[in-house]
Amino acid sequence: MADMSKRSDDHRIESNPLVIEDSFEGYPLNYFNLPLHYRDDLKSVLIPYGLVQDRIEALASRIFSDLHIHIPEQLICMCVLKGGYRFFSDLVSKIQNENRLRNDRSLPMSLEFIRVRSYVNDHSSDQLEIMGLSDLNVLNNKHILIIEDIIDTGVTMAALKTELEKFQPKTVHVVSLFTKRRKDKKCIFKPDYSGFEVPDHFIVGYALDYNEYFRDLEHICVMKESGIAKYRVTGDDHVE
């Protein structure tokens, strides 16, 4: 008889990111249904929507398998708005599916929402602003899963986790749909779970924006330089 426990280990879903190589420039736009008002601003489709959904489903299964054993109490799922709302919604929904499918144990969850501002145009700024959760004392002795869309330099997430840990939660885990492989500097923060590691492109779509545009794209796309210039803000305007 086959060793089923060993087979289970061999097929354990990977929590580390699926790596998109630097040599991969994406898929041609004409193979996808994209909003006409953005076509001239995009270079390629880096990750199709369907692949994003499949990876989120895999992450949900891995997170459930890891946490439902070790967290008997409620898990606070914390959405980092605005870019994280699509990922947050889909991930939580797929974890709920795991709750319905598993007969041995479930993972109770509550939902919280915060906003973190750190971007001006296509660069991460040095200033961090955290909004939401007026009473952070509710995190004391709780289990937290921070759900983020993308980790770039890691400065923002490192600062956020440090701030939350001041309120002495039991555990803090971080899941990011994307981590960026920067050319100019090394990312200082590694999430516990990650969907994709992407090259040093400015990507938009699936609620990732550029100055509040492109959130309505379904696919993850690479912007053209001309598109970046077109939607660039000027002066002292600050965006997420």
TrEMBL record:
This is Hypoxanthine phosphoribosyltransferase. Pathway: Purine metabolism; IMP biosynthesis via salvage pathway; IMP from hypoxanthine: step 1/1. Transmembrane segments: none annotated. The keyword Acyltransferase does not apply. PANTHER family: HYPOXANTHINE PHOSPHORIBOSYLTRANSFERASE, HYPOXANTHINE-GUANINE PHOSPHORIBOSYLTRANSFERASE. Its EC number is 2.4.2.8. GO terms for biological process: GMP salvage; guanine salvage; hypoxanthine metabolic process; IMP salvage; purine ribonucleoside salvage. One of its GO terms (molecular function) is magnesium ion binding. Its cofactor is Mg(2+). Belongs to the purine/pyrimidine phosphoribosyltransferase family. CDD domains: PRTases_typeI (cd06223). Keywords: Cytoplasm, Glycosyltransferase, Magnesium, Metal-binding, Nucleotide-binding, Purine salvage, Transferase. Its main location: cytoplasm. It is found in: Cytoplasm. The keyword rRNA-binding does not apply. It is an enzyme of class 2 (transferase). One of its GO terms (cellular component) is cytosol. InterPro entries: HGPRT, Hxn_phspho_trans, PRTase-like, PRTase_dom. Residues 54-210 form the Phosphoribosyltransferase domain. It catalyses: IMP + diphosphate = hypoxanthine + 5-phospho-alpha-D-ribose 1-diphosphate.
